[in-house]
Amino acid sequence: MVVGVDSFDAVLDRMSNERAEASSHGSGHWTAMRGWNSSFVATSLRSQPWPSREQRGTADRAVHIDASTSAPRPKPAVHNAAPTPPPKPKPDIDTSLYKRLSPEDVAKDINLLATDTPAELKSKRRRFARLNHPDRTPMEWREAATIRMKIANHMVDEALRGKLAARA
């Protein structure tokens, strides 16, 4: 690269030189650029080579704009924008559930019956987890929710083992 020439001008000069070489060899309007990947091929609709830096002069050079001194851009106007809906209120959580930590209370909440099938037991476990899972409870009640889920999972697992043992 020539010192004192910006990269844009250097690329244009190189393209002009390569176009002149290609036209002297009769290669038509397809031009391969040296130094680029071989799959890069440029086509041009121009029948003349690119103008040299001297021919272009300084009129078409890029102008540097200092962002600190320029005026701020106006924000584009938004037309027909739908108003944002009000935020949904947080659901009230019944915290009395998390005070019921005895196995009897949890069994009553699950509503386990001796006649439940394995599919019904799994459904009851999912329904209980939907309401009591620790990830869905406030931070101050997570420990109690974890205890409730452990008790419920143990009770459902025992009921499922009993159903499977009765089948065998």
UniProtKB/TrEMBL annotation:
| Disordered: annotated segments | 46-95
Q: Where is the composition biased (Basic and acidic residues)?
A: 53-64
Protein name as annotated: J domain-containing protein
Species name: Hoeflea alexandrii
